[in-house]
Structure to design on (964 residues):
């Protein structure tokens, strides 16, 4: 039932709006609306019950194991939320003077410094509002760098075929054409193809390392040299930063620019699809082009509790005249950044590498156990990074049960599905990322569920193909959804 | 180990299963030369008690003042139930609803949200949100250019927020799109129709129409929409959703039919166009007034609604209602063929997320206030600003700058430098407004002031007293 169907004419929440209807005669009649909008008329309890019940129709990290590859669905510590929602932080207007937000700005400044250190970059801007916007900022900076040198011939961005779809889409938004290069049998970039692809037209290469195939690109230094020698820059897609946090710094691998998905690696909530935060880090040569605003720190005449004689201010167009500009109306997803900051402070220096250690331990353990249970992994000759791929092709050939069917049957067993059919290079692909916050018992129960599904596939494939059975709905008709668009409710 | 549950026994057993001597061995494919040294700028870890103290101290530094700044972010009462529901783990820690069967909660919320936004804006369809209003405007410009096909020029009036214009420029400039400035009329503070008329007859993809505009003034949206359509351009409405509880919905602006070059040409879409012959083509804006706390600038969310004929050009996630195997209604992501994970380099945008949590807040917020409550909040915000405007204009040397009707912001002209006056008001505990001087130097000592429903008569008295004191 929709909230509109719970609506009752004339019902209103007197506690939540002004008691009197104020005078609006100052607004000319022809600018006023004549029909009331379709908003509910419901009591506070009606509304609370409705949305509480809806919440119960969701899987979430707080209720289920979520081994969703490339999404890093780790536990979101509650303190990060409650401390980001302290009343003074929530109440501050974005255009209130810097002097009224020194506590907030100190947190963001510290976060910039922490992220610089863990990525090995010379500067960090926190303003991009999601990974894709971080990518946009990164490629725009690469373009600004070439343009500033008068190097106008560079028209192409190279992207491996295993890359996230955002990579080529971003390159196009920055006015580039995309050249795709293949992956070799080991899951690494095909160096011969890369050598053939680079040239004076190459603006840069976008690379995820470890790649979306769940393996570390061992020849990263060769790749860097090939691209740099052609005059191109290196972009690091930080989607998989969780795998190497505190172990390898993208700056040390030679990357010029990186975006971080703070909603993955730094554990800010996914919120059913956002808000994310896609901070960017840059090497020295890209510092002048960073997106604004940044937080700057200056010596202050008056000592303050957090800065001991420092004051903080926004750095703007005046400070960075060559900046690629602003990407949001105010300061990106500021509240998300506070959550990431609290998380980083709770981990501390010693906690950063533990993230990579245990994310990698969990992934390799799960890969080993699933292999023992009869599943085919895509790259058995390689170490898993923080994630790995199971291919259901053999099972599908034998029983007809596909990766999608396994995914749906897992829902019945209380597990969120892994990422399916991505990357597209591997047939019947299940990309599995357990994260460091899951215990051995949870991983063992997941392996047991996968074993059961495998047995069910041989015993009763049709049953598996009909899954799920225990969710609020069975499989949905996506074709009908797209052909007979029903995007807004209309009263019958 | 914070947030890592492994015991020594677990680690031993897991390594044995893998066949690795220790955890470090799992990183043996990484060339040793690339392994990081110690982190030097990351402080030692804190437990929850320690970090609570740290954050408490920092928040205490940021005690709020009495705020009269709007300029795109507005202080409104948010019912307690909104964020208590939003931070339920089932919403807060869920992923994008790709597994529809296990995400019906999030999906239904988004479908209800789309319905509410389409109704507020008077448009046929809504997406499931974009990052924020400013980047949403950039996406609307890109969408209009895709739909128009022949022109890559968009008219972006000076009455649109200067920050929004700056963001739009950052995002679209690499795609060979020209953003053309239209000046405002000095008396009314609204789009200068004579200056606009100079573009009549040229090939224009779209006109951006802000309502209310950045100065809080109300534009003649019917005339502007008709101008756009008469000149074969799309009309992009840039609106504050709260004000639409009172103001004419963009879908009803103007009386002339849509321009011809909509995608699909004359064939399939002619019938769709006939259903909604006039009105803006795209409506965008920032959803912050609907349940997002000010929070130093984010997270907020951008909304985007459009006419049915343009739905396949829309960026971002869209939720549709369909049926399951047994014919039971359910919700799912739809029209995914527009998106980057399918279309890659040919996608409508690189966008890969929405502001799901903020949209959940907006949906609960709109449901709790309801059609009547939202109207009361909008009316009170208008009336409070009107009262403040009258009382402030009674202070010697202060005058209201523009003579057009306003919504819930007004421009005041001061007899002294605006930055200086605002700093003195701050000493009195009042944030007196947004300084327009750096953005519109031609206006002189001008500030933009907002009094929402959260302000009482006493608050307005305090404002006037602080202003008087600052000018003495």
């Amino acid at each position: 039932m929709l909230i509109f169907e719970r609506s009752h004419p004339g019902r209103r929440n007197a506690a939540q709006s002004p008691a009197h209807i104020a005078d609006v005669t100052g607004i000319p009649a022809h600018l006023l609306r004549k029909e009331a909008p379709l908003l509910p008329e419901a009591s506070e309890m009606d509304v609370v019950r409705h949305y509480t019940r809806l919440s119960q129709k969701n899987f979430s990290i707080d209720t289920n194991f979520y081994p969703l590859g490339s999404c890093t669905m780790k536990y979101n510590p509650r303190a990060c939320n409650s401390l980001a929602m302290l009343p003074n932080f929530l109440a501050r207007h974005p255009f209130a003077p810097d002097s009224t937000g020194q506590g907030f700005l100190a947190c963001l400044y510290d976060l910039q410094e922490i992220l610089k250190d863990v990525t090995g970059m010379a500067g960090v801007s926190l303003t991009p509002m999601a990974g894709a916007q971080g990518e946009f900022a990164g490629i725009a900076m690469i373009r600004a760098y070439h343009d500033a040198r008068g190097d106008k011939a560079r028209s192409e961005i190279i992207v491996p075929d295993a890359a996230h779809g955002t990579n080529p889409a971003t390159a196009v938004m920055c006015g580039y054409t995309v050249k795709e290069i293949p992956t070799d049998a080991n899951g690494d970039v095909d160096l011969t193809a890369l050598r053939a692809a680079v040239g004076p037209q190459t603006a840069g290469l976008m690379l995820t390392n470890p790649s979306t195939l769940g393996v570390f690109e061992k020849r990263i230094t060769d790749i860097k040299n090939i691209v740099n020698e052609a005059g191109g820059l290196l972009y690091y897609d930080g989607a998989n930063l969780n795998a190497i946090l505190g172990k390898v710094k993208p700056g040390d691998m030679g990357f010029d620019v990186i975006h971080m998905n703070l909603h993955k690696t730094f554990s800010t909530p996914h919120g059913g699809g956002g808000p994310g935060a896609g901070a960017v880090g840059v090497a020295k040569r890209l510092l002048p082009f960073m997106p604004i605003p940044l937080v700057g720190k200056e010596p202050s005449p008056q000592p303050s509790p957090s800065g001991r004689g420092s004051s903080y201010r926004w750095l703007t167009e005046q400070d960075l005249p060559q900046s690629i500009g602003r990407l949001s109306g105010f300061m990106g997803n500021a509240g998300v950044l506070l959550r990431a900051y609290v998380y980083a402070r709770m981990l501390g220096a010693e906690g950063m590498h533990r993230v990579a250690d245990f994310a990698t331990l969990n992934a390799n353990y799960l890969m080993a156990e699933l292999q023992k249970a009869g599943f085919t992994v895509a790259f058995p000759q390689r170490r898993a990074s923080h994630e790995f791929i199971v291919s259901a092709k053999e099972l599908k050939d034998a029983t007809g049960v596909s990766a999608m069917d396994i995914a749906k049957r897992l829902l019945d067993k209380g597990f969120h599905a892994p990422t399916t059919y991505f990357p597209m290079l591997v047939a019947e692909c299940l990309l599995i990322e357990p994260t460091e916050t899951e215990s051995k018992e949870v991983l063992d129960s997941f392996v047991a569920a996968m074993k059961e599904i495998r047995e069910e596939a041989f015993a009763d494939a049709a049953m598996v193909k009909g899954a799920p059975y225990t969710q609020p709905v069975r499989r949905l008709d996506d074709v009908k959804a797209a052909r007979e668009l029903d995007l807004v409710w209309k009263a019958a | 180990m914070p947030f890592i549950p492994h015991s020594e026994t677990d680690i031993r057993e897991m390594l044995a299963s893998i066949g690795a001597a220790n955890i470090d061995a799992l990183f043996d494919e990484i060339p040793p030369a690339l392994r990081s040294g110690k982190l030097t700028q990351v402080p030692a870890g804190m437990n929850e008690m320690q970090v609570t103290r740290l954050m408490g101290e920092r928040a205490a530094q940021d005690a709020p003042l009495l705020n009269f700044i709007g300029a795109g972010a507005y202080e409104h009462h948010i019912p307690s139930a909104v964020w208590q529901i939003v931070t339920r783990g089932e919403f807060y820690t869920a992923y994008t609803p790709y597994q529809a069967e296990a995400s019906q909660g999030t999906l239904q919320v988004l479908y209800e949200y789309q319905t509410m936004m389409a109704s507020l804006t008077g448009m046929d369809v809504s997406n499931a949100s974009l990052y924020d209003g400013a980047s949403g405007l950039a996406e609307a410009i890109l969408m209009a250019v895709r739909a128009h096909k022949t022109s890559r020029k968009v008219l972006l009036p000076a009455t649109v927020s200067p920050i929004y214009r700056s963001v739009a420029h950052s995002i679209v400039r690499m795609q060979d799109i020209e953003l053309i400035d239209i000046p405002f009329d000095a008396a009314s503070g609204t789009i200068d129709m004579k200056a606009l008329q100079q573009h009549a007859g040229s090939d224009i993809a779209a006109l951006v129409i802000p309502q209310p505009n950045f100065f809080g003034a109300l534009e003649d949206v019917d005339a502007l929409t008709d101008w756009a359509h008469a000149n074969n351009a799309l009309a992009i409405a840039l609106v504050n959703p709260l004000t639409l509880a009172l103001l004419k919905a963009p879908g009803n602006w103007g009386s002339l039919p849509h321009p011809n070059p909509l995608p699909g040409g004359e064939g399939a879409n002619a019938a769709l166009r006939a259903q909604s012959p006039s009105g803006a083509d795209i409506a965008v804006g920032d959803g912050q007034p609907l349940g997002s706390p000010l929070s130093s600038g984010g997270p907020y969310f951008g909304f985007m609604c459009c006419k049915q004929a343009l739905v396949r050009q829309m960026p971002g996630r869209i939720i549709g209602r369909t049926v399951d195997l047994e014919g039971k209604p359910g919700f799912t992501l739809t029209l995914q063929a527009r998106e980057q994970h399918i279309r890659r380099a040919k996608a409508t945008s690189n966008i890969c997320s929405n502001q799901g949590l903020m949209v959940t807040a907006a949906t609960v917020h709109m449901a709790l206030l309801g059609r009547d409550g939202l109207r009361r909040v909008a009316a009170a915000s208008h009336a409070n600003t009107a009262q403040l405007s009258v009382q402030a204009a009674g202070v010697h040397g202060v005058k209201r700058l523009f003579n057009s009707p306003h919504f819930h912001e007004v421009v005041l002209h001061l007899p002294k430098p605006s930055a200086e006056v605002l700093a003195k008001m701050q000493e009195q505990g009042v944030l007196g407004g947004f300084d327009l001087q750096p953005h519109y130097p031609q206006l002189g000592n001008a500030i933009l002031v907002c009094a929402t429903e959260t302000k009482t008569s006493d608050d307005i008295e305090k404002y006037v007293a602080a202003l008087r004191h600052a000018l003495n």
Remarks:
- Chain A has 14 helices and 13 strands.
